[in-house]
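Worked example

This section walks through a single chain of length 85. The input is the sequence exactly as stored; nothing has been trimmed or padded.
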Amino acid sequence: MNTARALVRTFATGSVGRAVKSEVHPGYQKIRAKMLEFQVDNGLPIHLKGGATDNMLFVSTLIVNGIGLAMCLHFFYGMAFPKKN
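Given that input, the structure is written out below as tokens.
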């Protein structure tokens, strides 16, 4: 029963309710401008095109990964060569 109602509703409304609007929402213009900033070919990878904030996040990620790698190596060394009593 619900499927039949849904089919009738889609065919009844048709394309009359979906008229093309000539005006564009102002928020879309902001998004479009931001998209154009990221499409500029300035030699930077996409994850650094956001500016100083992206660069700071990238460097902090590298530091945290380096610390994690060092801690893993320290753990493996401690398990491979335990301290003697």
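What to look for: The CA atoms of residues 24 and 30 lie 11 Å apart.
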